[in-house]
């Protein structure tokens, strides 16, 4: 049984700040699976009802409607919620379909947009709105867009791209009081797990198979902080492919066929005609190496910690990022010279 607070069939959230806003992906193409597939898989859907309590130790969840449902094995996959800014509660926060519909209508009407937060969602919405001819002001508290993820090189590049497309980008800026959209990151939805007494550390703590501190209770997706054997630390990832692939791994573990989940996280972002891809866990780095010319895509920035590659971010350079990801998964060492040299095919280091 799949219980979900939203009315719609589970859908692909990444479109909400890209194709759905631009009108190229209609709402009929958002669903992860068609309704009949749930029937074929014998998954009962309980949509539009929220879980209020996991009902431990009796193992009976309580729903907002008053319904209770008994369980033997449970998976918490409550995802994340947009981080709210005090004083800006009335602005749009883009996490669910209804907010995307409101935003799309604003953009279709060509209305000016004030966006707070030049993270991925803020930058993607700014790109769509500019392409539709809206005036956009983008307010970012830090010195560059996406500074914490991409560093000064990648962030500086993105700042130039947005300004080049006519975005009025304000860096080191305070948010305006009447912002239209606030996109300043997200928080794991841990309330149910906290109430049930599970171990929490800025996310529901799970092992590499999604097991929480309570036997029979698993967790998967954005809400989890899981141990990653490659990075030798617990990480929390808020990206589509990892939540999906870790979700598969947790489902198998629940069915008694557990295998550690050890893939290097990967995600993409589309802005204007640029496709940005990133492989890594967003951990702190102490050195960067650039392959290509930062002024002109394609290029890739590699992030190193104590001489070891821990992440790569490429613009229109998906082959390099895919190879960097495989190198990280294979624990393969590459020299700085090899990383920096566009003529060196990284597959050669994968021997
Ligand atoms: C606008 C936007 C753009 C994005 N773009 C990208 C991208 O380009 N690339 C990328 O890799 N990732 C992107 N992401 C991130 C990606 O969508 C998430 O990583 C992914 O959706 C996480 O999946 P999840 O199942 O863990 O959580 P979610 O998708 O958040 O789903 C959790 C579900 O649980 C429900 N729920 C929560 N609490 C309860 C409760 N108590 N009872 C019942 N139901 C409950 C919620 O309503 C929700 O439907 C984007 C996200 C957003 C919002």
Concise summary:
By secondary structure, this protein is of the alpha/beta class. It contains 9 helices and 21 strands.
What does the model show?
By secondary structure, this protein is an alpha/beta fold. Among the domains are: 86 residues, FAD/NAD(P)-binding domain, CATH 3.50.50.60; 78 residues, 2-Layer Sandwich (Enolase-like, domain 1), CATH 3.30.390. Helix content is 25%, strand content 26%. The chain has a 5-stranded antiparallel beta sheet. Strand 17 and strand 18 form a beta hairpin. The chain is globular and about 60 Å long. Bound molecules: flavin-adenine dinucleotide. Flavin-adenine dinucleotide binds next to strand 1, helix 7 and strand 17.
Radius of gyration from the alpha-carbon trace, in angstroms: 21 Å
Arithmetic mean pLDDT: 96
**CATH homolog superfamily of the domain at 97-182:** FAD/NAD(P)-binding domain
Secondary structure tally, helices: 9
Q: What class do helices, strands and sheet pairing give? A: alpha/beta
Approximate strand percentage: 25-35%
With strands numbered from the N-terminus, the spatial order across the biggest sheet is 17-18-21-20-19
């Amino acid at each position: 049984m799949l219980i979900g607070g939203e009315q719609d069939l589970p859908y692909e959230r990444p479109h909400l700040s890209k194709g759905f806003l631009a009108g190229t992906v209609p709402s009929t193409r958002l669903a992860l699976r068609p309704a009949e597939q749930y029937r074929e898989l014998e998954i009962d859907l309980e949509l539009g009802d929220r879980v209020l309590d996991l009902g431990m130790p009796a193992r009976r969840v309580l729903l907002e409607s008053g319904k209770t449902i008994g369980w033997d094995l449970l998976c918490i996959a409550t995802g994340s919620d947009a981080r709210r800014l005090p004083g800006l509660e009335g602005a749009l926060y883009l996490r669910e379909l209804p907010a995307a519909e409101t935003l799309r209508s604003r953009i279709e009407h060509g209305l000016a947009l004030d966006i707070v937060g030049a993270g991925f969602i803020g930058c993607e919405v700014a790109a769509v709105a500019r392409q539709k001819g809206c005036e956009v002001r983008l307010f970012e508290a830090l010195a560059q867009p996406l500074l914490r993820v991409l560093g000064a090189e990648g962030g500086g590049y993105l700042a130039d791209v947005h300004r080049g497309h006519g975005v009025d980008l304000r860096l080191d800026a305070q948010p305006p009081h009447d912002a239209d959209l606030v996109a300043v990151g997200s928080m794991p939805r841990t309330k149910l797990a906290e109430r049930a007494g599970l171990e929490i550390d800025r996310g529901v703590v799970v092992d590499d198979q999604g097991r929480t501190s309570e036997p029979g209770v698993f967790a998967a997706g954005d809400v989890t902080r899981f141990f990653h054997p490659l990075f030798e630390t617990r990480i929390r990832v808020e990206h589509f492919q990892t939540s999906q692939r870790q979700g598969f791994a947790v489902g198998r573990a629940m069915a008694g066929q557990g295998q550690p989940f050890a893939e290097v996280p990967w995600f993409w972002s589309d802005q204007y005609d640029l496709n940005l891809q990133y492989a890594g866990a967003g951990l702190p780095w102490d050195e960067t190496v650039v392959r290509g010319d930062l002024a002109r895509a394609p290029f890739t920035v590699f992030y190193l910690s104590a001489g070891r590659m821990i992440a790569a971010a490429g613009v229109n350079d998906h082959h390099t990022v895919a190879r960097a990801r495989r190198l990280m998964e294979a624990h393969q060492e590459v020299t700085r010279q090899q990383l920096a040299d566009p003529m060196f095919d990284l597959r050669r280091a994968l021997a």
